[in-house]
Specification:
By secondary structure, this protein is an all-alpha fold. It has one domain. It contains eight helices and no strands. Helix 2 crosses helix 3 and helix 4 packs antiparallel against helix 7. The longest helix has 25 residues. The radius of gyration is 20 Å and the shape is globular. The termini are far apart.
Length: 190
């Protein structure tokens, strides 16, 4: 079987997989609770914590919580890093057509270099440059607080409702590092 056929076969298996109605329902409820909580806190405080990329963050955090992209560190860090890049691009280059492209590219590179990957955050430089420009206030609200509230709701919901073991990706990474340290420092390898 060729590589192309293998990829098609994997896609067909995914596409034809039986739908899990319970999973669809719980992820939708989780997403509503996540955005609803952010919107509610915005309403009672009078400060806007809602931003469009949080909708895509809900998809990752509640539909595929096993993904490394769904880890709270990546959700919060990705949005903050990308927003900082957007502010810097806005400050240095204004609203030039190429500055938007540069902002997204640099944000993606920064997230990869820092190993804080969160795809929805790649939209933040565009949003920052269009809406907020040079305002550093956006780093606190809506970016840091909005993404933190959403990450907290995701952790609580996924842990108690769908019984998801959070931070599994981080724990596997730490376990892998400690295993490598044991192998390197064992008397047999010295």
């Amino acid at each position: 079987m060729s590589a192309a056929n293998s990829k098609i076969s994997k896609h067909q298996k995914w596409y034809h997989r039986r739908l899990n109605i319970k999973r669809i329902f719980t992820s939708s409820i989780g997403s509503m609770l996540g955005i609803g909580t952010v919107a509610y806190v915005s309403t009672i405080t009078g400060v806007n914590f809602i931003m469009p990329p949080l909708g895509a963050t809900c998809f990752i955090a509640f539909v595929i919580p096993d993904s490394a992209f769904a880890q709270p560190r990546n959700i919060i860090g990705g949005h903050v890093i990308s927003s900082i890049v957007g502010i810097l691009c806005s400050y240095c280059f204004g609203q030039q057509w190429w500055a938007y492209a540069l902002g997204v590219g640099v944000a993606i590179a920064a997230m990869q270099l820092l190993r804080i990957l969160h795809p929805p955050a790649a939209a933040n430089p565009i949003l920052v440059m269009l809406e907020w420009g040079l305002s550093l206030d956006i780093l606190l609200a809506p970016v840091l607080i909005g993404s933190s509230i959403l990450a907290l709701v995701a952790v609580i919901f996924n842990k108690f409702v769908i019984k998801h073991r959070y931070f599994r990706v981080v724990l596997l990474y730490v376990a892998n590092i400690s295993e490598n340290i044991r192998i390197i420092s064992s008397p047999r390898t010295l």
